[in-house]
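Example record used in the benchmark description.
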Amino acid sequence: PKSWPQALARLSSMHPHFQVVTDLVAAAVARSVHSKAPLSVPPLHLWGEPGVGKTQYANDLAAALGTPVRRHSMENAQTTALLLGTERHWSTASPGLVFEQLVFGDAANPVVLIDELDKAPRGAQYDPLAPLHSLLEPATATRVRDASLDIEFDASLVIYIATSNNPGHVPAPLRSRFREFEILPPRGEQALQVARAVVAATVLRQAVPGFALPPAGLAHQLAHLTPREIGQAVQDAVGHALEASRFQLSLADFPAELLGVETARSVLH
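Model output (structure tokens):
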């Protein structure tokens, strides 16, 4: 979209600890713009400890690119059906999400977010990871088959983003198809930057008319938490503030144990 430069700057500002991933996507966009070829982003595997913002980054990246996103969690997946459809001989046969996104959607390059890749059940009769071997391989992605319709279609421009906590639990042949990035928790100035962005975004998501954005100093008191923890804390704090008929946050809206050490001491005593 025409707003890509501004969206790219916002993405970098909100997720500075993902900058190496953002740079890779920005380079792909530049190649597409100057060659007039379709945008092609290699499959991405983002791994790291829970709560560092992997899923939120994937959603924000899709928004920056102006393309839809469809999430598929591997944690409870039992069959191959969700990605590439159910076999036609079943009465409940239906197309897979890849076919639905491409044929019924508005973009040839939707983001398919494969969450919890490392938690896919192993040893099942139908391996839920099996479809990814062809979907992620450029040579075969141009002619993938949806089982319910027995139709081949081109899925080579779909943007796959997988997340995991422990990449060692992902089969090596599948990992080789991704560009892998370890996402570390933000530290120092990055942590402050992320805290400011998450606090502001969380307040805005509550959609409370007239609720004021908090000062940066308040966000800094939460910078030692993960992005997920910050978002949860701010969401609860907005509720506490509204209960007190206030339309702005204060430190009193947060549990003392969540705040920075010095602030927590001053609140407790």
